[in-house]
Design brief:
The complex is a heterodimer of chains A (196) and B (124). Chain A is of the alpha+beta class. Helix content of chain A is 29%, strand content 30%. Chain A has a single domain, classed as 60s Ribosomal Protein L30, Chain: A (2-Layer Sandwich). With 124 residues, chain B is α/β, with parallel strands linked by helices. Chain B has a five-stranded parallel sheet, sandwiched between helices. In chain B, helix 1 crosses helix 5 and helix 2 packs parallel to helix 3. The two termini of chain B are 18 Å apart. At the A-B interface, helix 1, helix 2 and strand 11 of A face helix 1, strand 5 and helix 5 of B.
Chain lengths: 196, 124
């Protein structure tokens, strides 16, 4: 993530790279570009706290749904990192609202890419249904990239469809590297420490 | 007398996932949304003559976080195992949990079989 104090918005701007997450209670903008990944924007309008997460669920989710699926567990954890930061700032997930973007398929609509896109869309829909978090805007799928800016204080989104890959060439490379790493580690679990 | 495992997390997805993983271990399961909710439910369970065998708790929760929950729980129960299940991985936080009286610390994501193994170790 990089921070720019002098953005065109007249507020601090935080740019997230693929796999990043960030939350704040300050009047700022969080931005990113996404192709195949999902970008979620969560905000608590009562407290003016919000955040953005950029991640992918690396593979197809089984028919049993996200609760018992090892691959979905990686996506749940990605959102948990963002939610943890929001809670630490004083936010409460019972009052959160969500806006979701991305999960595009970009290489001429190859079958496996469309399957991955569908799986990520299914994941995000199931997740917010179980969490009972209202999804105010859902802009998912499609064969294009998106540039997203999110205003933390009021939840306003500025979204741009990117047809020209040159504009986002750095992000394309970074997103591919991130996706490759997530696929390699898709069944990885966290450290276990026993105190006694 | 019933033997209960408490699952304490503000995420319904995590609570349901954990319950799904441990549901066949022969214990009654009670879910709670945060530390305050958990302490109230534990009090009710014990007042009915039942027993808390183990707690699995998140750290970052509204109203009462996991570290505060353990400190409150340990005022009346020094021995029941409390396993922390969290995204927090910093040594400083882990030490806070240990000092508060946690028995173990699992960093998400977790695999169900690994969670079951840890729970079994503490329920021996």
């Amino acid at each position: 993530m990089i921070k720019s104090e002098s953005s065109k918005f007249g507020k601090p701007l935080y740019i997230l790279y693929p796999g990043d997450y960030f939350a704040s209670k300050d009047d700022c903008i969080i931005g990113t570009i996404t192709g195949t990944c999902i970008v979620i924007c969560l905000y608590d309008p009562q407290r003016g706290i919000g955040g953005m997460g950029h991640f992918i669920v690396p593979g197809s989710i089984g028919t049993s749904g996200i609760i018992s699926d090892e691959i979905a567990s990686s996506g749940v954890t990605s959102i948990e990192y963002l939610l943890g930061e929001i809670v630490k700032l004083g936010g409460d997930r019972r009052f959160l609202r969500a806006k979701v973007f991305g999960a595009g398929y970009l290489n001429s609509g190859k079958a496996e890419e469309i399957k991955l896109s569908d799986s990520n869309i299914r994941f995000i829909n199931e997740y917010f249904l179980i969490e009972n978090i209202s999804v105010e805007r859902s802009d998912l799928g499609g064969d294009f990239r998106r540039r997203i800016y999110f205003s933390v204080k009021d939840g306003v989104i500025y979204r741009q469809i990117l047809q020209n890959n040159e504009e986002s060439s750095e992000f394309i490379k970074l997103e591919q590297e991130y996706v490759d790493i997530q696929f390699r580690n898709k069944k990885k679990s966290g450290r276990i420490i026993l105190f006694e | 007398m019933g033997k209960y495992i408490m699952i304490i997390d503000d995420s319904p997805t995590i609570r349901i996932s954990v319950e799904f993983a441990i549901k066949n271990m022969g214990y009654d399961i009670q879910q709670a949304e945060n530390g305050v909710d958990a302490l109230e439910k534990i009090k009710t369970i014990i007042s009915k003559g039942n027993e808390i065998s183990l707690c699995i708790s998140d750290i970052n929760m509204p109203q009462m976080d996991g570290i505060t929950f353990i400190k409150e729980f340990r005022k009346t129960d020094k021995f029941t195992p409390v396993i922390i299940l969290t995204t927090e991985s910093e040594d400083n936080k882990i030490n806070q949990g240990k000092e508060a009286g946690a028995s173990g610390w699992i960093i998400k994501p977790f695999q169900p079989a690994e969670l079951v193994n840890v729970v079994k170790k503490f329920l021996k």
